[in-house]
Specification:
The complex is a heterodimer of chains A (about 150) and B (about 250).
Chain A lengths: L23 E9 L7 E2 L5 E4 L9 E2 L4 E12 L6 E8 L2 E10 L4 E11 L4 E7 L9 E9 L1
Parallel strand pairs in A: 1-3
Antiparallel strand pairs in A: 1-10, 2-9, 4-9, 5-8, 5-10, 6-7, 6-9
Chain B lengths: L3 E6 L5 H7 L6 E4 L7 E6 L6 H9 L3 E6 L11 E5 L16 E4 L4 E5 L4 E2 L8 E9 L7 E2 L1 E2 L13 E2 L4 E12 L6 E8 L2 E10 L4 E11 L4 E7 L9 E9 L1
Parallel strand pairs in B: 5-6
Antiparallel strand pairs in B: 1-3, 1-4, 2-3, 6-7, 7-8, 9-11, 9-18, 10-17, 12-17, 13-16, 13-18, 14-15, 14-17
The chains are: A mainly beta (about 150), B mainly beta (about 250).
């Protein structure tokens, strides 16, 4: 055998095949989620502005059915007093168990446990809430999840 | 003489009752549990189709599924059922086993029986979702283009395309006008591939919240340019805002 170093090629020992097509990755993000307790909603994709309140919410409909899971939130620049910020996935305007609660001073948070079954056409968004002010908002916030 | 296998479905399965109704020519009755525990198999030493066996069973209310000269696989072996338009209400064969599969010709995905229900096998038939959007699509008839995913600003008149990272099929376009407005004149959101308008498009009133095209599909090659064009034949009076579109990339 020649030229094959991956372990999958002819003449090599049996090895697990590479992964098949994985679930879709959906991304949300904003530059800020505000230091106040006003409820806000992340923008799909990423928009380098303050996350809007309900009046400016931008929801979209899921293109297919599946299961959403593995929510991860990244505060690329942490800030504030360490009070908690909750990022909760909503389906058809109803909060789900897929949620991350993390300190404003934490860089990463995740929910790798809960999952939610969704139907094609369901409305999806990520709601941002705080029980207490955080004084200064983290910035460059990005959240992503898997649509399996 | 070869063996023939007869498959039946019962409302409620009673082995002793079935055995008592099997004509003598049919040698044995094998129990073949199905999801509801009601499928059964009759193994006959006679390879010709036995009309009396068929009549005896159907007279008792059992539903004849099919007969075959091919022996069923043993328990625990999975099978491929071929192409079907939908999940079978009950597997087309008795002895359903976790791992049985078929090709769904409606949704174009593989389906697998997990022992309880038909599901998409994780990691094999999941598809991507692409997003497009803009904070405002303007009220005039100027042609505009949505941003990839979203930008909270006026949709550009200069297209922002991106190249498909792989080949696939675009389908199930859904457009959400989060803040509808205007005079209800139509706005057309059309998927374009390499700058050419496709049949995958949504035409919706400016006052509508949701529109979709769940019928048309577009094949794309790796490297094709994708965008969504926004056009209006007549001005809408006021601008629709907070527009978000999604499309499945299978």
């Amino acid at each position: 055998m020649s030229g094959c170093s991956s372990g999958y090629g002819l003449g090599t020992s049996m090895a697990p095949p590479p992964p098949m097509v994985a679930g879709a990755i959906l991304v949300w993000g904003n530059n800020s989620v505000s230091p106040t307790t006003s409820t806000r909603y992340l923008t799909s994709g990423y928009d380098d502005v303050l996350a809007p309140v309900i009046a400016g919410i931008v929801q979209f409909r899921l293109a297919r059915a599946g299961t959403i899971r593995n929510l991860r939130v990244r505060h690329n620049v942490t800030a504030g007093n360490g009070n908690l910020i909750s990022y909760t996935v909503r389906i058809n305007n109803v909060v789900t168990l897929l949620s991350v609660s993390m300190a404003s001073t934490a860089a990463d948070g995740s929910d790798l446990v809960n999952s939610v079954v969704v139907a094609a056409g369901d409305l999806i968004d990520i709601e941002v809430t705080k029980g207490l002010d955080i004084v200064t908002s983290p910035t460059f916030i990005a959240a992503d999840l898997e649509l399996a | 003489m070869a063996t023939r296998y007869y498959y039946f479905q019962a409302e409620a399965f009673d082995l002793a009752f079935v055995q008592s109704r099997v004509p003598a020519a049919a040698a044995t009755v094998q129990v073949a549990p199905s999801p509801g525990g009601t499928s059964f198999l009759i193994v006959s030493a006679d390879d010709t189709f036995q009309a009396d066996l068929f009549a005896a069973m159907t007279d008792e209310g059992f539903t004849f599924i099919f007969s075959s000269l091919v022996a069923p696989p043993a328990f625990g072996q999975s099978r491929f059922y071929g192409a079907l338009a939908a999940d079978p209400a009950s597997p087309p064969f008795p002895l359903p086993a976790a791992g049985d599969q078929y090709w769904n010709t409606t949704t174009l995905v593989m389906r697998v029986y997990n022992g309880v229900a038909w599901v998409n096998p994780p990691g094999t038939s999941d598809t991507a979702v692409l997003g497009f959007g803009a904070g405002n699509v303007n009220a005039s008839t100027t042609t505009r283009f949505l941003y990839p995913w979203y930008d909270d600003s006026l949709a550009q008149t200069t297209v922002i395309q991106y190249r498909a990272p792989r080949a696939g099929t675009l389908r199930n376009l859904r457009v959400r006008q989060n803040v509808p407005a205007g005079n209800a004149n139509l706005i057309v959101y059309a998927v374009r591939v390499n700058g050419v308008v496709t049949f995958l498009l949504v035409s919706m009133a400016s006052t509508a919240t949701d529109g979709s095209d769940l019928v048309n599909t577009v094949a794309v090659a790796a490297g094709d340019l994708i965008d969504i064009r926004v056009t209006k034949v007549l001005a809408t009076g006021a601008a629709v805002t907070d527009v978000a579109a999604s499309v499945e990339f299978a």
